Amino acid sequence: MTESWRFLVDENLLGLLRWLRILGFDAIAFQAVPDSVLIHEAQVQGRILLTQDRQLVADFPQAILVAADEPKAQALEVAKRLKLQITAPLTRCLKCNAELKEVSKAHVNVQVAPKTLEIYDQFFECPVCRQIFWKGSHFKKLMKEVEAINQALSG
Fold it and tell me: Which one, 77, 135, 144, 147, has least CB within 10 Å?
C-alpha cells in the first residue's frame, strides 16, 4: 500500500482530489464549509490540508498552497514538494476513497457485462459504494498518466 500520506483538499481542488486517489493516496474534501472546519478536520484527522486560498494558509501555516491550475499539474506539484513515492496507484475508489478489494468473477457476474467477464480475469470492488473496477482500457490510460508523473518525479 502507498505511504500513509493523508490529504484534505478544499473545494477548489476537486480535480487534485481525484488525481491523489488515482496515485493511491487517501484524499478527502469538504465542500461549502468555513475554513475553520477545514483546519479542525485536518488537525483531528491528521491530514495535510491542500488549498489555493492564501488566507487559509495564513490562518493555518501547516496547509500547503497549491500554485498550479490544472489537476494533473497540481498532483505533480504536491508529489514533488512532499517527495511522495507512488507505490500503489489505482488502488482506491475514485468516488469515495475506500481501498479497493479484489473479488472473484463469480462475485461480479451480475454487475459486469458478459463480454467484460470473457476478457478480464481480475476484478476489484469498492467496499463502500460497491463500484466494480477491472484493468481495462481506462485503467491502462490512467497507468500511462501515472508513469508520466513518476518520470517527472525522477527526472
Answer: 144
Strand partners, 52: none
pTM over 0.70: yes
147 is in which domain, residue-wise?
101-154
pLDDT along the chain (155 residues), means of 10: 82 98 98 97 98 98 98 98 96 97 96 95 97 96 96 89
Torsion angles phi and psi, residue 113, rounded to 5: -60, 145
Among the listed residues 119, 71, 126, the one whose alpha carbon sits nearest the alpha carbon of residue 95: 126
Q: So what's the pLDDT on residue 4?
A: 86
Residues 150 and 106 in one domain: yes
C-alpha cell recorded at residue 78:
504536491
State how far the Cα of 148 lies from the Cα of 23, in Å rounded to an integer: 12
How do beta strands 6-9 and 48-51 pair? parallel
Pairing of strands 48-51, 64-65: parallel
